[in-house]
Amino acid sequence: MAGVQTSAEKWTNRTAIAAVFVALIIMLTPIYWIAATAFKPRNLATTIPPTVVYEPTVAPFVKLFTKRSQLREQPTQEEYDNAPWWEQMVFDGGEKVVRNRKSGEVRSSGYGDRFKNSLIVSVISTILAVGMGTLTAYGFSRFKVAGEDDWLFFILSTRMLPPVVVAIPMFLMYRVVGLNDTHMGLIILYTAFNLSFAVWIMKGFIDEIPREYEEAALVDGYTRIQAFFKVVLPEALTGMAATAVFCFITAWNEYAFALIMTNRNAQTAPPYIPSQVGSGLPDWTVIAAGTFLFLIPVAIFTFLLRNHLLRGMSFGAIRK
Amino acid sequence: MAQIDMRNVQKFFGANQVLKDLDLTIEDGEFVVMLGQSGGGKTTALRAIAGLETVTSGQILIDGVEMQGKKAADRDIAFVFQSFSLYPHMTVRENISFPLRAVRMGAADREKAVNEVAEVLQITEHLDNKPSALSGGDMQRVAIGRALVRRPKALLMDEPLGVLDAKLREQMRAEIKRLHIARGSTSVYVTHDQVEAMSLADRIVILHDGVLQQVGAPEEVYLHPTNAFVAKFVGSPVMNINAASFAGVNGQSSVLIGGAETGFHFPEQMINHVRNTGQPVSLGVRPEAVILSHEAKEGYLAAQTSNIEPLGSHDIVDVLIGETVLRARTESGYVAREGQQVFVNIDPAQAHFFDGATGLNLRGAN
C-alpha cells in the first residue's frame, strides 16, 4: 500500500507525469498528423494553419489503391450518377479511375502489391534471421568454437559498413546472378543484414539459460537436439520474440536497398510511397494514407509479442 | 542398482589437470560422498560418471560395462544439480515425468510412477504448480523426484543442498538419508560440507587438487586421516596442526610446538618412529584432545586464554602457548574470560604427526 506522501514526493510525481505527458505529445504528434491527413479531403491537407476539424473521408484510401488519371473534361451527370460511390470520390477530386479498355475492370495502383511484397520479404527474412541466429548463438554459447571471439567480431563487423557504401557493388552482383527485383534477393539481403544482430542478441539470451537445463535433459535420456527443442527453445522464446520484433522492424522499414534493388515485381512499400510524390502534383492525403497503413503491421506485431518482450527470463526456478 | 568403477581416470581442461589417476570403486547400493574444496575435482569426477564430461584417459565402468563414448542418455543414471534446474515452463508433474517421456512410457504408467514418487517425497499437492511457486526445499524434492522416477542405476548429486539455508539443509539431509535407506540406490554425492559428508556417507572420498586423498568410512576418516589435508578438512573446528620439535627431558620425551621451551610428554614408543626420521614434522590435535585445567599439573603447560566461542553445548577456547594458538573444546563456561591463565595438556593417544614436507600422517609408519 502507498504510504503517506510528503509534499515533496507529490511534486516529484506531478513533475514526472508532466514530463511524460510532454514527451508523449512530442512523439505522438507526427503519428497523429499522418493519421489525420490520411482522412482529410485533399483541399484541407495543406492549409495553413492546419485544419483540425473536418469531415473525415476515405477518398485518400480509394485513390491509394486505384490507378487514376487527370480528368480532361467533366464527366456527364449520367456517368457520375452511374459510378459507384468510390469512383464518385475520384471524380470529385478532378480525376478519373483508369479502367481496362477491353474488360472495363478498374486498374489498381501498385500499392497493394508493394504492401504484399513488404509482408513477404519482412516475414520470411525475420523467420530466417531469428531461426539461424538462434542456432548460431546456441552453438557459440554452448560449444567451444576455435576463435570464438574473432568469429563473433566478424559477424558483428558485417553491420559496421553503412549499407549505402555497398549498395552499388551489391546491385552489380545481384544483376549478374539474376537476383535483381526478386523477393529472394531482398530476403537474402535482409536476412544477412539482420543475422549478425540476431546472433548477438540471442547469444546474450542463451548465455542466460543455465546449461544445467540441457544437461538434466541429456542425463534424463534425451539427445542434444531434443534437449534443444524441449528445454532451450521454450526458455529462449522471450529473446526470440524481442529479436524478431527488431528484425521485422528493420526489414519492414528498409528503404535504400529496396529502392536500388527492386522496381516492379519485388518492390516493397517504402520506396513506393515517396515515388508517388513525383507523379503530378503531390497528393499528400494519398501519401499519408499509404504511410498510415504501412505503420499498422509493425504495431500489430509488437502488440502481439508485448508479453514476451516484457516478461522476465526464468522466473527464478533456478537457484544461484 | 549398479557398481561404478573408475580406473586411472585423468581429466585435463587445457593444460590444467583436474583429475589425477583417480581409482575408485563404488559398490552396489552404497552411499558415497565426494568431499573436497571447490576446484578439487569432485564435481568433474561426478560429471564424468554421468557422461556430461569426457575423460582424457582411463576407464569408467558401470556394472562392468565400459562407458567411454557412451552418451549421458545411454548410461541410465540420474543427476541432481545444485541449481535444481527444474524446467520453468513445465509444471512439477511435467518436470518429474520428463525422463519417462524420453523413454516413451505410456501415459498411465507415467502417471502412476509420478504419483508414487511424489508421495514418497511429499510433493503430491504441488504436482500442478510451476516450479517458481515452490519453496527451495520443495524444488529440491522435485529435482530428486525427477531423478528417482526412472529408477536409474545410480543417483548422482552435485551439492544438492548447497543453496538451501542451514535449517532446511539439515532437514533435507535427513530426508535424503531416509530415501537412500528406503530405495537402496547407489548414490554418489558431492559436497564441500564435511558435516553433510559425515552424516550421509557409507564411505567418504576426499579429493584435493584432483588427487584422491583418502577413502573410508566417516569415523575412519575422522580418526585416522591419511594426511594433514584430510585432517584439516574433516572435523569442526579444524584440527590444530603446528610445527613440532622433540626434546628429551628427565628421561621422558616431550613434543614442543611453536617457540615453546617446554613440551607435552609423550610415551617414548609413540614418537620414536617420528623422531628417528629427522624430518621436520607437525603435531596435529583435534580441539577435543586438548585438555585444559585451572590448576598446574604434572605435564601441563601454562597458557593464556584468548578468544572464546560459546556454542551452547560446549565452548571453543583459543589458548596461547607462547605465540602458538591451540583451539580447545571445553564444557560451557569452563573458561570465563579472555586473558586468563590456564594449563594445557594434550591426549597423546589422539595426537597425529604429519610429515612437514609431504603432509603424510606418520602414525601409520610403525
UniProtKB/TrEMBL annotation, chain A:
Q: Which UniProt keywords apply?
A: Cell membrane, Membrane, Transmembrane, Transmembrane helix, Transport
Write down the InterPro entries for this protein, in alphabetical order: BP-dep_ABC_trans_perm (IPR050901), MetI-like (IPR000515), MetI-like_sf (IPR035906)
Boundaries of every ABC transmembrane type-1 domain copy: 115-305
Q: By its UniProt entry, which Pfam families does this protein fall under?
A: BPD_transp_1
Record's subcellular location: Cell membrane
* Topology versus the membrane: Multi-pass membrane protein
PROSITE patterns recorded: ABC_TM1
TM ranges are: 16-35, 119-140, 152-174, 186-206, 227-252, 284-305
The answer to keyword DNA damage applying to this record is no
On the tree of life, the source organism's domain of life is Bacteria
Query: GO cellular component annotations, sorted alphabetically?
Result: plasma membrane
| A GO BP entry | transmembrane transport
What PANTHER family does the record tag this protein with? ABC TRANSPORTER PERMEASE PROTEIN, MALTOSE TRANSPORT SYSTEM PERMEASE-RELATED
Similarity annotation:
Belongs to the binding-protein-dependent transport system permease family.
Q: What is this protein called?
A: ABC transporter permease
Q: Which organism is it from?
A: Neptunicoccus cionae
